[in-house]
Amino acid sequence: MSTAILTGPPVPGSPLEGDLRSLGFDVRVASGADEAAELLAAVPAAERAALVDPRFVGHVHALRLGLTDPRFPAAAIPGAATARPEARAALLAALREAAGRPTAQSSQDGTSSGATDAHPAPGDVLPDLVAGALASEGAAPHRPELGTLVATVPGDPQARDDARRAVAAVDDEDVRLRSAVKARDGFFTTFCISPYSRYLARWCARRGLTPNQVTTASLITALIAAAAAATGTRGGFVAAGVLLILSFVLDCTDGQLARYSLQYSTLGAWLDATFDRAKEYAYYAGLALGAARGGDDVWALALGAMVLQTCRHVVDFSFNEANHDATGNTSPTAALSDRLDSVGWTVWVRRMIVLPIGERWAMIAVLTAVTTPRIVFYALLIGCAFAAVYTTAGRVLRSLTRKARRTDRAAQALADLADSGPLAEGFAAAFQGAARRLPALAPPAIAVTGAAVVTLTAWLAPYGSPWTAVAALAYALTSGLAVARPLKGSLDWLVPPVFRAAEYGTILILADRADVSGALPAAFGLVAAVAYHHYDTVYRIRGGTGAPPHWLVRAVGGHEGRTLAVALLATLLGAPQFTIALTVLAVAVALVVVAESVRFWVSSGAPAVHDEGEPA
Fold first, then answer.
1. Which of these, 129, 350, 507, 583, is most buried using a 10 Å CB contact count?
2. In this predicted model, what pLDDT tens digit does every residue of 144-185 receive, in sequence order?
3. Non-local CB neighbours of 151 within 8 Å, separated by 6+ positions
4. Is a pLDDT exceeding 50 seen at residue 112?
5. Which of 361, 407, 436, 410 minimizes the C-alpha distance to 188?
6. Residue 4: in which H helix or E strand, if any?
7. Cα(273)–Cα(531) distance, integer angstroms
C-alpha cells in the first residue's frame, strides 16, 4: 500500500481521489502544509508517500508515470511529488522547508504576487515547491516525459474547464499502449511484432500477470522449441521455428508489460538480461542435437555461432562503456552517422544489417522450418560476421577520428570487462613501469598479438603438443601487459572483446582438434558458462554497482587462467579424458558463477536495471 496526501480540501466533482485509489494509494486529506507534514511523518516507513495538490487535473497515466515508477527514489509531475522509502526523509524535510515559505497569495510584505488567470502562482502549489526543494535535500526527483498527457493545476474555473477538455481530447490508454513499445527497435520487431504484442501486454496486465511470469513463459517456450529441433525431424524443425517466433513475441511482451504497468524489479532485470542468451544458446544446442540425429555433426558451427554472437555483444558493451562519459566528441564519423539518421530509410537499413535479435530470430526460425541446421548456422555465421565487421569498423573509425578524454570510470569499466585473473594481474604489476612507456595503441595491439599466438598455435600444432600450453602461458603474459596501465586509449575498448575471442576460440579449436565424440558439446557448455559470467559482469556495470566481487573472478581463474587450464588439459590428457575434464570444468564454473549471480540479483542491493534490448 502507498499513501497519497492531498495538500488541501478536495475539489467538488474531481475524480482525483478515485484516480489515486485506482493506482493503489490510500488517500488522506490535509488542511495545509503543517498538517501534511504531520500526516507524512505518520506514514509507515516502508511505504511510498505522495503529495498531490487537490486542484490537480490530468490523465490517470500521468499520475501513474509520476507517482508509481519503482525505479526512482523520488519523482514529480506538475502538482504532485512522491518518494519511495529511501527518499522519504528527504521528502519530509523538503515539505517542512516549503511549509516555512510565504505563499504567493500572502507574501511577507502582505502583497499579492502574481498568479495568472490560467495558472496559480508557483508558491500556491505545495507539491511543486516540495519537488523543487528535494534537490537541495540530495534527492532530485525524476520528471517523466509526459508528451501529450495532461498534468496541471489550474488556477480558476475557466482554466479548470480548459484542462478538462484537454484531458478529454487525448486518449491516455492509447498513449499508454504506444509508450509501452520501445522508441528504438529493429525493423522486424517494430513492424511485425509490436503492433500486436502491446495488446497482448495489456491483456496480461488486466489479468494480473507480471513481466517475470511472461519472461519465464518465453524461456519455457524457447526450451520447448529447442527440444522440438532436437528431434531431427522435419515436423520438429517446423514446430521449432513456430515456437521460436512465439517465444520472441513473449520476449517483446514482457518488456512492454513492464512499461505498460511500470512493473520494474531487480529480479526482472536479471531475468530479462540473461534469458535471451539462455534461449538462443539452448536453441543452438537443440539444432546441433537434431542434426546429429540425422548424421550431421554441426557442434563446431553451433559453438562458433555462440562465440561470434557473444564477442559482438562484448564489442558493443566495451565501446559504450569506454565512451559513456568521455568528454568531447568531434568525430566526423559520428557526425555522418547523425546525418544518416535524419534520412528515414537509412535508419531501418542500418538497424537491419546489424542483425538485431528480432531479425536474427526470424531468420533462424524460417531457415529451421524450411532448411537444415547446417544451413541455419552457415547463414547465422555469415550474417553475424558481416554485422560484426560493419559495427566494429564504424566504431574503430569513430575512435580514431574523435578527440576525447576518457575518464577513470571508463577505464575501470574496461578493466572489469577484461576479466583478468591472478596470472594477468601478476604480470600487469610486473610490467607496470614498462607499460607507461608504450605507445598509445599498444594495449589492443598486444592483446591481438597474444590472442593470435594462442589460437593459431592451438589450430596448427598437433593435438596434445606442449607448444599449446607454452602459447597459452605467453597469452597470459601479454594479457597482463595489455592491462598494465589504465585503458584510456582511443582503441583500448577492443581489449575485452579480443580476450573473449581468444578464450572462446581456443576452447573451440582444442575441442575440435580432439576429434572425439562429446568434446565439442562439452566445450559448448564451458563457453556458455563463461559467457554467462561475462554477461553478468556487463549488467552489473550497467546497473552502477561495478563488476562481480574479486574473489569470484579469481575463483574461476580469469580469462587467461581458464585458457591456460584448457591448454594444459589438452596437453596432458588424452582426447577422451580431455572431454571429461572439459565437462567437469564447465559444471564447476557454472555452479560458482550462477550461484553468485542469483545471490546478487535477488538481493535488495541489486540495481533495478530494465534491459531495453541488446545493442547489437
1. 507
2. 999 999 999 998 999 999 999 999 999 999 999 999 998 778
3. 56, 58, 59, 62, 63, 66, 77, 78, 79, 80
4. no
5. 361
6. strand 2-6
7. 13
CA dihedral 247, 253, 254, 260 (to 10 degrees): 180
β-pairing, 2-6 vs 49-52, is parallel
Residue 419's Cα: distance from chain center in Å? Answer: 19
Closest C-alpha to 116, from 89, 78, 156, 88: 156
When pLDDT is averaged across residues 17-41 and rounded to a whole number, the result is: 94
Nearest-angstrom CA–CA distance, 465 and 517: 20
DSSP 8-state code for residue 113 = P
Residue recorded with cell 484542462 = 163
- Asked whether 357 and 255 are in contact (CB, 8 A), the reply is no
Residue keyed to cell 562503456: 321
Indicate the SS3 state at residue 324: coil
The answer to whether the predicted template modeling score (pTM) of the entire model surpasses 0.70 is: yes
Per-residue pLDDT reduced to its tens digit, 343-368: 566 777 878 888 899 999 999 999 99
Element (H, E) at 154: none
| Mutual angle of helices 558-572 and 442-460, in 10-degree steps | 20
Number of other residues whose CB lies within 10 A of the CB of residue 91: 28
| Rounded Cα distance, 90 and 85, in Å | 10
Q: What is the DSSP letter of 11?
A: P
Lookup: cell for 76: 514529480
* Buried/exposed 304-337: b ≥16 CB within 10 Å, e otherwise: bbbbbbbbbbbbbbbbbbbbeebeeeebebbeee
* Type of residue found at 72: F
Q: What's at 331, amino acid-wise?
A: S
Beta-strand relationship, 2-6 and 25-29: parallel
Q: How far, in Å, CA of 103 to CA of 40, rounded?
A: 20
Question: Grid coordinates 502582505 are at which residue?
Answer: 110
Cell digits of residue 216: 519465464
Residue type, 228: A
Residue 135 is given by DSSP the state: G
What is the DSSP-derived secondary structure letter of residue 327?
B
